Amino acid sequence: MILGEAGTDPQLFQYLGVLFLALVVTAFAVGTMFASKLAGWVFSTRKAKALGRHKPIKDTPYECGMLPVGDGTSRLSVKFYLVAMLFILFDIELVFMYPYAVVADAVGVFGFVAITLYIATIAFAYAYEWRRGGLEWS
User: Fold this and answer.
1) Distance CA 135, CA 87 (A)
2) Mean model confidence pLDDT for the chain
3) Helix (H) or strand (E) holding 19
4) Which of 3, 36, 74, 83 matches a 20 to 30 Å C-alpha distance to 101?
5) Predicted structure pTM score
6) In whole angstroms, what separates CA 52 from the centre of its chain?
7) How far apart are CA 135 and CA 88, in angstroms?
């Protein structure tokens, strides 16, 4: 069939690359899951026990070369999560200043005033949290 004949749309052929990429991504995902399952079956602990090659030390968690001490499921204070959320919040707010840095010359005085108010708002929120003690989890 020649491109452009009746019944075919030449614009649809532009999407063949997208279809090919989708097929490659799907094949990669399925292939890696299959390889993981196969590796788990080949190197499983049960098989090693059956062959007499199982060592109990392999079942312990590895923590920087030190033997684990205490329970691995200790509870953390809520303050830790609050500090983590505040860090993420301030970090994301700072990311919004990068587009301004790229177009600083184009936006002129209006952009400068807007980013100054934005920074002042972030600084006020940061100072408020610091004074309130929201950044300490001890």
Assistant:
1) 9
2) 81
3) helix 16-42
4) 83
5) 0.44
6) 40
7) 12
